[in-house]
Design goal:
alpha+beta; three-stranded antiparallel beta sheet; globular
Length: 88
């Protein structure tokens, strides 16, 4: 029984990997929003201006090129938040 469960888990992971690899930017929110650069935690960004464009791919916290969607008027209230990409 354990072997069949292990095989089933491995097959599910193998099937899911291509779907994860094709992940794109996070969906645009339906509420009034703005892109806030430089505040996302590592791997919790919505997208990036630059080398990658997929959600959840930021390699470091507070990457100046990665952004998250926040309600309009919120970004500049967050320490380190910017409405434009920072750094290179």
């Amino acid at each position: 029984m354990k072997t069949s469960m292990l095989v089933a888990s491995a097959m599910a992971a193998a099937i899911a990997l291509p779907a994860i690899a094709l992940a794109g930017p996070a969906p645009v929110p339906t509420y009034p929003h703005e892109k806030c650069y430089g505040v996302a935690a590592m791997n919790l960004n919505d997208c990036k201006a630059g080398s990658h464009s997929c959600a959840g791919e930021s390699a470091k916290a507070k990457d100046g090129q990665s952004y998250i969607y926040v309600p309009s008027g919120t970004c500049q209230k967050i320490q380190g938040g910017s409405l434009t990409p920072k750094g290179a």
